[in-house]
Amino acid sequence: MMTTNGTDILAPAAAQPISNNQALFLRYFTAILIDLVVLNLFVEYSDLVVIDSFTVTIFVAALLQVLLKLTIALEHKLAEFWNAREGGLARFMRYFTAWLVLFGSKLVILEAINILFGDYIDFVGRFDGLVVLIAIIVVMLLAEDLIVRFYRRLA
């Protein structure tokens, strides 16, 4: 079916060229939806994650996405700093700071979730839920990676 200007109204909106800002929006929108699904699967199939409402899960998924991106940006900045230096100490510090940021960020993320949603969400288990949060984040990152790989194979 054609409109008066000759475009097909049944064509999907995605068939139109998109800007860089639109691509960035779609990337983060999709990542938040993936994180939302992962969180809700943990809520549904595990006694270690309790979230009072779907709305809270949406906000937690968005918060996780923001904090994970900030963590990765910080880790990359530190990696650039130490990679620009030579020697064994620089190599050690590169790996040590990466580990420190990637592990320490989970403590920050857990505390941020607790501060913002403490009465509405509960991670249960070892180290006040830190282990299950790490498991959730790993599954989120794996799911995001699988979706990206699938998407790239469509080309």
Structural features, described:
This protein is mainly alpha-helical and 155 residues long. It has one domain. Helices cover 74% and strands 4% of the residues. The chain has 4 helices and 2 strands. Strands 1-2 form a two-stranded antiparallel sheet. α1 (20-45) packs across α2, α1 (20-45) packs across α4 (126-153) and α2 (54-83) runs antiparallel to α3 (88-117).
Give me some keywords for this one:
155 residues; mainly alpha; two-stranded antiparallel sheet; 2 strands; 4% strand
User: Strand content of the residues, in percent?
Assistant: under 5%
The radius of gyration computed from the alpha-carbon positions, rounded to a whole number of angstroms, is: 20 Å
Unreliable stretches, pLDDT < 50, 5 or more residues?
none
Sheet of most strands: 2 strands, antiparallel
Net shape? flat
| Count of separate structural domains | 1
Mean pLDDT: 88
Number of strands: 2
Helicity range: over 70%
Q: What class do helices, strands and sheet pairing give? A: mainly alpha
Strands across the major sheet, in which order? 1-2
End-to-end Cα distance, whole Å, is 27 Å
DSSP summary: helix tally: 4
